């Protein structure tokens, strides 16, 4: 472990007291820390290496204007690790969905907010490439709850800062056969905005406890692309219109975010301007 619970870390004038470990993955470990100067909780992600000019830092800096993306406060090097000090959130959708039923309306509302976030992320030329319920967090300040997109560790730029298109390499990610990766990614092909949107669809399906690609095989994904109605039927049929639209846009190589957002609104009536609410009890719930 890079940090121990109770450890005091001083970075210039800032002081962080480590509260404990939140989790870990192939790209680093995340700790909860108390910012003693600001009297608030923050998250510190520790990534092995000493070069702070890493893709996640570059992506977060480029997306600093996007309110629904995790905010980066500062970086520092500690014990052979690059440490990113970021906003800390209440819970992720993956852990909430394990214990809560996501209605059609709530699922479509999450999808609406997520696609709107991706619209803004893509505007700045960034592909996330790792969309799953665990990377969509709930922030809550005692008054309002919002969705926040985190973990840009394997993100990529498809536009430079002058909005000129640039090539994205294929097969430079480690999880190409993961259940939540797009069909293109499963084949190791270069990723586009369409792949983020396809992964967003799989995220919504996961919230509904619908996981047809558990084995990670490309065969199931190819079948789903050809006949999504074989999976999206009954109480999950409401996602079929969005699926057809996404796959149609992939074929024509066009992206119409407004059309996708309207499709979700038509699938389950909800007020897109209303904020989410959080319930506290034996478990955290989202409404």
TrEMBL record:
Residues 16-287 form the Protein kinase domain. It is an enzyme of class 2 (transferase). It comes from the Eukaryota. One of its GO terms (molecular function) is ATP binding. It holds the Pfam family Pkinase. Its EC number is 2.7.11.1. InterPro entries: CK1_Ser-Thr_kinase (IPR050235), Kinase-like_dom_sf (IPR011009), Prot_kinase_dom (IPR000719), Ser/Thr_kinase_AS (IPR008271). PANTHER family: CASEIN KINASE-RELATED (PTHR11909). This is non-specific serine/threonine protein kinase. It comes from Caenorhabditis nigoni.
């Amino acid at each position: 472990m890079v940090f121990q619970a109770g450890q005091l870390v001083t970075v210039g004038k800032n002081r962080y007291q480590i509260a404990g470990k939140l989790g870990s993955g192939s790209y680093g470990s995340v700790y909860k820390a108390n910012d003693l100067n600001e009297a608030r909780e923050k998250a510190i992600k520790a990534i092995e290496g000493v070069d702070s000019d890493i893709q996640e830092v570059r992506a977060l800096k480029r997306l600093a204007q996007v309110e629904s993306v995790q905010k980066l406060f500062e970086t520092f090097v500690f014990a052979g690790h690059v440490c990113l000090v970021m906003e800390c959130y209440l819970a992720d959708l993956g852990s909430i969905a394990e214990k809560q039923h996501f209605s059609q309306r709530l699922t479509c509302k999450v999808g609406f907010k997520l696609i709107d976030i991706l619209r803004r992320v893509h505007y700045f030329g960034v592909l996330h490439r790792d969309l799953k319920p665990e990377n969509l967090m709930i922030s809550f300040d005692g008054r309002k709850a919002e969705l926040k997109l985190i973990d840009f560790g394997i993100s990529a730029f498809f536009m430079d800062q002058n909005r000129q298109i640039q090539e994205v390499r294929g097969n430079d990610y480690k999880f190409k056969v993961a259940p939540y990766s797009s069909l293109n990614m499963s084949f190791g092909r270069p990723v586009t905005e369409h792949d983020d949107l396809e992964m967003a669809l799989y995220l919504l399906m996961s919230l509904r406890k619908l996981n047809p690609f558990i084995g990670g095989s490309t065969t199931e994904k190819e079948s789903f692309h050809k006949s999504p109605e074989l999976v999206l039927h009954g109480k999950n049929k409401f996602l079929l219109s969005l699926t057809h639209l996404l796959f149609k846009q992939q074929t024509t190589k066009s992206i119409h975010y407004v059309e996708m957002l309207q499709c979700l609104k038509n699938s389950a009536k909800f007020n897109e301007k209303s904020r989410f609410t959080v319930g506290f009890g034996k478990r955290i719930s989202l409404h």
